[in-house]
Amino acid sequence: MHFLSVFIPLSHLLITSWAQSEHSITSTGKLRAYDQYNIIRFHSNNITHVLKDVIQPMTNDYDIWTRNTEFIDIKLLKTIKIPNSNEYSHEIIINDINSLIEETYDSSLGNNDQENIFDVSLKMNNNNNDFFYFKQYHPLQSIYLWLDLMKSTFPNLVTIENIGTTFENEPLKVVHISSNNSSMNPKNKTILITGGIHAREWISISTTLFTIYQLLTKYGASKRETKYIDSLNFLIIPIFNPDGYKYTWTNDRLWRKNRQETYMSNCQGIDLDHSFGYKWDNNFEFPCSEEYSGQYPMEALEVKHWDTFINDITTRGVHIYGFLDLHSYSQDIIYPYAYSCDELPRDYENLLELSYGLSKAIRNKSGKNYKVVAACKDRGSDLNPKLGSGTALDYMYHNKAYWAFQLKLRDTGNHGFLLPPKYILPVAKETYAAIKYFCDFILNPEI
Ligand SMILES: [Zn+2]
Q1: 169 vs 242: CA distance, rounded Å
Q2: Residue 54 — pLDDT band, cuts 50, 70, 90?
Q3: Which of 146, 161, 324, 358 has minimal Cβ neighbours within 10 Å of its Cβ?
Q4: What residue ranges do the domains of the chain occupy?
Q5: How far is the CA of 363 from the centre of ligand 1 (A)?
Q6: Which residues neighbour 103 within 8 Å (Cβ) at sequence distance 6 or greater?
Q7: pLDDT tens string 417-447
Q8: Which residues contact 111 (CB under 8 A, 6 or more apart)?
Q9: Start and end of every Peptidase M14 domain (predicted)?
Q10: Cβ contact 290:318 at 8 Å
Q11: Looking at residue 110, what is its pLDDT?
């Protein structure tokens, strides 16, 4: 039995004041409350019509939660009267957003136990089935300390690099995992995994952390993980948007963008997933928009740092074979391109086969169904080109990584972005099954 624990200094206990004293976070004004809103699902095969002809003429106070070829989920004021139409049907899928927000913190609030939330523990035993750290979500500082703990526990396998600083001076951390970690072995194929590009998609972050944990703790004990770490380089960014993620813990659980200044002082943040430098456009020109793309490509600092880092390692001979960008929600395996359905992705049949393989790996693990969807359809860019502009998926696929996917994790709308902590492990485990499938595919010498 091996037990390690790090207790976070008091200066980091920024959240315990409300965590200890209040049961209702949103009602006290500590976090933004959403009493006045519902999440509405519009069933339609023309989401652009719903958005442009129905929603936008009525209000600019809307937030798209997810969209695909069959429906679009939108946060709308309860006072909005939605007209009946033959073009769509609609239903309320979430009418008490505040309760769901509070549930995502629930186990942290639990017994008013501040150690519970900030105790970064790593317990390992022979069965390796404790998973203590994955019983709840954790704030930024806690996660960064946990990464340090991983580094100190597995010094021969882990390197953590700060690849830049955010607008609010937080480090952007990349975790390298390789048995040849001092300098990545250029002969090894490299796999990149990113989480948390959108701040409110917490499940994507906990899933990257679980992936790190599984790879490291199983190295030497399991043939598969040992082979992965000996033969591949992993580069994992668990929190691509540290400022935004921090903000979801302190101000607004539903924040999506980063926290960078814009030309409008009252509207901060660029949507990182519209900021990448491939097929970028400035059609999302309004800084208050949840999808604001900035004034020029890669204006978002996190994206700029990532671009510099990727260019640097590829110049040094690192070959990126695979890229998985984790998001939520809707249970989709999404393949390029996002910006247009007119450009056929290279090696299309294999790409599709790999997509279905990822989906099947998840289904075999948990029984959950993940749909395989072309990104252009998922985004709706076949109907409105701006919807698919400047994505991480297209940028990585076109310029940097041979095989690239976006995975939208659970659920299908019951909780949306507000997945309760009890789902952290089930989602992490099924996604890790897909990641292993991806590693096996990449390790195929013919690929
Ligand atoms: Zn997302």
Answers
A1: 9
A2: very high
A3: 161
A4: 37-95, 137-443
A5: 22
A6: 415, 418, 420
A7: 999 999 999 999 999 999 999 999 999 988 7
A8: none
A9: 136-442
A10: no
A11: 42
Ligand 1 center–CA 199 separation, angstroms = 8
Q: How far is the CA of 240 from the centre of ligand 1 (A)?
A: 11
What pLDDT does 3 receive? 46
| Average confidence (pLDDT) over 309-337 | 95
Shortest CA distance to 67 belongs to which of 332, 415, 344? 332
pLDDT digits (tens, 9 = 90+) for 86-102: 999 999 999 999 999 99
pLDDT band, very low/low/confident/very high, at 52 (cuts 50, 70, 90): confident
Domain spanning 137-443: CATH 3.40.50.1580: no
Ligand 1 centroid to Cα of residue 231, in Å, is 30
Q: For residues 357-365, give the mean pLDDT.
A: 98
Strand partners, 42: 72, 90
CA of 224 to the centre of ligand 1 (A): 30
First to last CA, the chain: 40
Ion ligand 1 nearby residues (CB, 5 A): 198, 201, 327
Å from CA of 185 to ligand 1 middle = 31
Cα of 292 from ligand 1 centre, angstroms: 14
- Whether the CB-CB separation of 255 and 267 falls below 8 Å is answered with no
* Burial zone of 329 (CB within 10 Å; 0-12 exposed, 13-18 middle, 19+ buried): buried
Q: How far is the CA of 285 from the centre of ligand 1 (A)?
A: 19
Report the separation in Å between the CA atom of 327 and the middle of ligand 1, taken as the mean of its atom positions.
4
Residue with tokens 């598969």: 224
If pLDDT is split at 50, 70 and 90, which confidence band does 70 have? confident
**Span 153-172, pLDDT tens digits:** 999 999 999 999 999 999 99
Neighbour-count burial for 157-190, b at 16+ CB within 10 Å, e otherwise: bbbeeebbebbeebbbbbbbbbbbbeebbeebbb
